[in-house]
Predict the 3D structure of the following.
Amino acid sequence: MSIRFLTRTIHAYIDYPVAASLIGAPFLLGLGQTNPLALWLSVVTGVAALLLTLLTDHETGLLRVLPYAFHVWVDRLVGVAFVAAPFLLSFTGLDAIYYLANGVTVLLVTFVLNAKETDGLLAAV
């Protein structure tokens, strides 16, 4: 059994709850105690993730104008940005933990657990 079990279809279906979580969790957790950007970076990223999902050419995309491979590379960039955010923006405590945990999770999903595509930008990764 391959460790790469997250197919494009599974990825498509988890994108919506992930976007909702990025929008809502910062308010529920009270993020922004060390820097207001700790609250708003996640919210803005969640809105962008929702738009990206709606525009992606996969099972749950509405307009399907962006290639799935592009979507995954944007996810990876978000993962890197989230890991870097606590260091670059001086987040500490829960603010830092939130971004580090989310960033590492996104990188793990997109680099290790996502099933390889047979063509496009993901075939080589």
Summary: Residues 8-122 form one domain. The two ends are 18 Å apart (CA to CA). The mean pLDDT is 92.
